[in-house]
């Protein structure tokens, strides 16, 4: 079968090319007739000649070309199915790209929100620490005031108790 008017061939690596084109490609390679590089994957392949007809007839049974003939049926129904599948896959790919954009935007939004909350938490933590320090300071002041109050009461009650004691004599 022909591909765009050319007979199809396949490399050992299953890349498909026109017979004449691949023979010209191999013939133009620097190491004519011994090896070549696949135009797609650049893998090196070995060959004695690009076509067994270049060899004497007695060597034909021993020649195994790395180029294989490929037959592709030109079935419009299969082609239509493949084109439909390609269209469907392109739509899925476009939807996937759109979803990735939406998810990236949401992720960025969440990251901004998280950063804002973290800042708020830090500020709340600093305020809480400030309140704790102020509370500790006030506790110390209140303890000092209580001691002073007790001492003041003792001083006030002490003269009263002396007067009672001396008054009974």
Task: Summarize the structure in words.
The structure is a single chain. The protein has 169 residues and is an alpha+beta fold. The protein has a domain at 2-69: Herpes Virus-1. The protein is 60% helix and 11% strand. It has 2 helices and 6 strands. The chain has helices spanning 19-27, 76-167, and strands at 2-3, 6-10, 16-18, 35-37, 44-46, 68-69. The strands form 2 sheets. Strands 1, 2, 3 and 6 form a 4-stranded antiparallel sheet that branches. It has a two-stranded antiparallel sheet with strand order 4-5. A hairpin with a 2-residue loop joins strand 1 and strand 2. The radius of gyration is 47 Å and the shape is rod-shaped. The mean pLDDT is 77.
Amino- and carboxy-terminal Cα gap: 142 Å
Strand content: 5-15%
Cα gyration radius (Å): 47 Å
Helical residue percent band:
55-70%
**Which architecture name of the domain at 2-69 does CATH use?**
2-Layer Sandwich
Q: Structural class per helix/strand content?
A: alpha+beta
In CATH terms, what is the fold-level topology of the domain at 2-69?
Herpes Virus-1
- The strand count comes to 6
CATH class of the domain at 2-69, named Alpha Beta
Number of helices: 2
- Helix and strand sequence: EEEHEEEH
List keywords for this structure.
6 strands, 4-stranded antiparallel sheet, 169 residues, alpha+beta, two-stranded antiparallel sheet, 60% helix, Herpes Virus-1
Compact summary:
InterPro entries: Znf_RING/FYVE/PHD. By secondary structure, this protein is an alpha+beta fold. It has helices at residues 19-27, 76-167; strands at residues 2-3, 6-10, 16-18, 35-37, 44-46, 68-69.
């Amino acid at each position: 079968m022909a591909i765009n008017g050319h007979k199809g061939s396949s490399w050992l690596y299953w890349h498909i090319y026109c017979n004449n084109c691949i023979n010209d490609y191999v013939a133009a390679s620097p190491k004519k007739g011994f090896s070549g590089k696949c135009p797609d994957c650049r893998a090196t392949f070995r060959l004695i000649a690009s076509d067994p007809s270049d060899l004497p007839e007695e060597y034909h049974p021993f020649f195994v070309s790395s180029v294989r003939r490929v037959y592709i049926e030109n079935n419009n129904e299969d082609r239509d199915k493949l084109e439909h599948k390609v269209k469907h896959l392109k739509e899925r790919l476009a939807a996937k790209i759109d979803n990735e954009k939406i998810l990236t935007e949401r992720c960025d939004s969440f990251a901004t929100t998280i950063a804002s909350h973290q800042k708020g938490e830090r500020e709340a933590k600093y305020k809480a620490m400030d309140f704790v320090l102020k509370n500790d300071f006030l506790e110390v002041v209140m303890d000092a005031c209580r001691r002073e109050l007790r001492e003041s009461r003792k001083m006030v009650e002490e003269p009263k108790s002396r007067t009672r004691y001396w008054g009974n004599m």
